[in-house]
Amino acid sequence: MIEELQYYAAPRRLPREAVRRLNDADTTCQRVELAVTNSGDRLGAEYRTRLEAAVREVRGALSKRDAELAAQRAEVLEIVLEEAGDLLPLGYASGLVDAIRAG
What we know:
Blueprint: H1 2-9, H2 16-39, H3 45-63, H4 67-83, H5 92-102
């Protein structure tokens, strides 16, 4: 009985793969936020809004510690970033997406 109580009272540790996926999603958010900040007015309101919304979705999954959902949302964020690529400095978006995928 005591062992069972200790098991349920202990904080749940995530598997290493889940932690890696959460970290990757967080890194994606940070890099996209930096890209949005550095793009200035070149990005345009539509893509800025879409990127910021996608970042919020990833951050929401991160706050729930849901690695699968965070990874899915991060993939959507990468797609939006690729679509916005023409509005960012030359090659910036594709280089950023490649860096994100490489880890």
